[in-house]
Fold this protein.
Amino acid sequence: MTNSKHFHYFALIAVILVGGLLRFWHLDLKSFWLDEIITALFSLGRNYNDVPLNVVFPVEDLSQIFSFKAALSCPQIAANLATQSVHPPLFFCLLHSWVQIPCVSIVDRGLVWSLRSLPALFGVAAIAAIYWLNAIAFSRSAGLVAAAFMAVSPFAVYLSQEARHYTLPILLITLSLVGLTQIQKDLVQHKLRYFTWLGWIAVNCLGFYTHYFFILAFVAQVVTLLALMYSRRRSLSRYSFLAIAVSILVVVASFIPWLLAMLSHANRSETTWLSQSNPIAPIYQTLASWVLMLIALPVENQPWWIAIVVALVMILFSIWSAQLIFRGLKQLWHSPKTHLSTKMLLSFTIIVLLEMFVIVYFLGRDITIAPRYNFVYYPSFCALVGASLTVQNFKFQLPNAKYIVIVFGLISSIFVVNNLAFQKPFNPKLVAQNMNLEPTIPLMMVVGYETYQDVALGLSFALALEKIRDDRIPTHLAFFARSPGYEFVWQKLSTSLSPDATQLNLWVVASGLRRRAYPPQLTLSNKQCAIDTTQHYRIGIPYQLYRCN
């Protein structure tokens, strides 16, 4: 018995170490993309006022834009986010403190590693938390399988390698589900542990300040808990109902200081890209996200025949896994020992999904378009998958089925960390390589911007360019406002100081501009620039080369 217990915890440590290795492996391999640029600016104590707009500046100035501003406090970071972004402040404040630690400072480790390391650490902590959840809800064995599944899940590894606020809410949602599971078990046993309720309240209060979608998780928890309490209302004491009422009031009241900021963020232009057009798309996008939680093989930017074969493998594996998981859930549902926990986690997951579809179909915001937003119910998904794979006594199950699922997850995660799956949106690295087609010729990149999102996108391209450009060859950047149209950009370009060079490659990044709308010639100060029709690209947004003499 003792040896078995020792082996169990040795296996848990091994799972956490593997999960940590996957999350920190090649952490700085991929360039920052648009959203990570936003994280970098605000967590470093900067904002968009630090970016030179409507002027030409050398690429070397990027080091100043992305330098650390130590004197800034958390309230000041929150003020920047309230006016120039659409996010609550907790993660950014934590990251601002994190990069000041000597062993992770930007000077020692570099910008990308320093800013991604904290989300990676939260991702590792979530592995331990999911073990805790399933150990309470089902069994220690179910906890170990759930931890192993999350450790190698390509979805979890992908989010852990993003300098974004997704792994922190995953961790907090997992901990809140731990509290919810313990509370529902206590209610069944007619217990009332104040420390459990206080912990649950504290975690949910923190969650509200990490991501607005945490509100969906809290509502789902409350509805799930109220449904249980209603079904057992005759046997519960009045103090139980008082506890849930006080908990809701405290959590909601804790968010009042940020409520006005959240309401002002609701209609900002940064969320317009979520507009819903195809009524069927949210359904298959959700199903695709479930597939990516299990398996993610190289499909992006592959030859069509490879993409088809790989996609077919992913679909077949997902169908096989779904049958396996469904049978396990059915067994858990009918077992008296696991019925309540299974019902609670399923209810939570279904309620979150319903909330997401309400946002899609009634508010017109398709939050299923990006797989990352499924982080809200990802902990309950992992818990249920881990528990279902632990069940062994039903027919037609392969003896080592859970190991097959975990091995495919491990292979998928290796593809993720090597940038073969879950590639960065807009692919800044590829954009930089395309722009640097003639490394010995001076280069200038002009971005027409309408919102701060356009500025962040241009900065992601600029950072990727800075990495591969020779310091001795002049490289310049410019962000020109394009309101009400690109005519202003062309006019501003004609009066701007051009780099001192006889030849210049001018790249124009023009979001929303059709290929035929690019003018055949542009003027840059005293230079005439002719369009090179062979060098037009579109990776999410278009960018075009002009050759200036």
Observations:
- The two ends are 80 Å apart (CA to CA).
